[in-house]
Design goal:
The chain is built from eleven helices and eight strands. By secondary structure, the protein is an alpha/beta fold. It has one domain (4-232): Rossmann fold (3-Layer(aba) Sandwich). α3 (25-40) packs across α4. The protein is globular. The relative contact order is 0.16. Keywords: Methyltransferase, Transferase, Ubiquinone.
Length: 235
């Protein structure tokens, strides 16, 4: 898995949310949470596993909506931030956080109603093996995102600390089929890559987002998007 050491650095964990989801990055955070909720629907009473939960953005959100959530991450530093976030949100006792490897999940087959993995597969060195594990522990649904090949994401990909794996649609469909999953729904967004939003104030970011959304809903919008959200069911 790319970036394990980088993500486990204490300063990275402590500054992760501020650098990515403040300023214009709030628009990214909002859209990603919307994508998760749209994909898995009402979560009250569901058993949900979040892979690579990081600082717990989605874990806390799902617990607030009544889900029984387990968040797993390789980084003890990220998990420490996630526990603080869950406690501050009033769901500290409703979420279990575990340190572990997504390639060898410490769970029984079919243990969860849904498994989500956001900001994960762009770092995966063996995506098929990881998706097999997600499918194994889910009895109903798997939801994840990818960064898109032949998009604006590739323009600045070289500048990232560990780069990103980019996927074509056919590659993702092949991975889903190979894992014994059935694609239920997919959506695509952000013609402008994430990096544009993280560096600018809210007011400018909102204007850019309006332009971005207009381009995205037009003819060929999906083809020029840089991010894809995938929802699949267990066959």
């Amino acid at each position: 898995m790319k970036g394990q050491e980088w993500y486990q650095a204490t300063d990275v964990a402590q500054e992760y949310d501020d650098k990515r989801f403040s300023r214009g990055g709030r628009l990214i955070d909002r859209r990603e949470k919307e994508a998760v909720l749209d994909a898995i629907g009402p979560v009250d009473g569901k058993d949900v596993l979040e892979i690579a939960c990081g600082t717990g953005r989605f874990t806390a959100m799902l617990a607030e909506r009544g889900a029984d959530v387990v968040g797993l991450d390789i980084s003890a530093e990220m998990l420490a931030e996630a526990r603080q976030k869950a406690k501050a949100s009033g769901v500290g006792d409703a979420v279990e956080f575990l340190r572990g490897d997504a390639g060898r999940l410490p769970f029984e087959d079919d243990e969860f109603d849904a498994v989500i993995a956001m900001r994960f597969f762009h770092l995966a060195d063996t995506p098929a093996a990881y998706l097999d594990e997600l499918q194994r522990v889910s009895r109903d649904q798997v939801m994840f995102d990818t960064f898109k090949r032949y998009s604006t994401r590739s323009i600045y990909n070289w500048a990232l600390p560990m780069g990103s794996r980019l996927y074509s649609r056919s590659e993702v469909e092949s991975l889903i089929d190979g894992a014994g999953l059935e694609l239920v729904e997919d959506s695509h967004d952000f013609v402008l890559p994430y990096g544009f939003y993280r560096k600018i104030p809210d007011s400018i970011a909102s204007t850019l987002r309006s332009i971005d959304t207009t381009l995205g809903v037009g003819p060929g919008g999906d083809a020029i998007a840089s991010v894809s959200y995938w929802s699949a069911s267990v066959e």
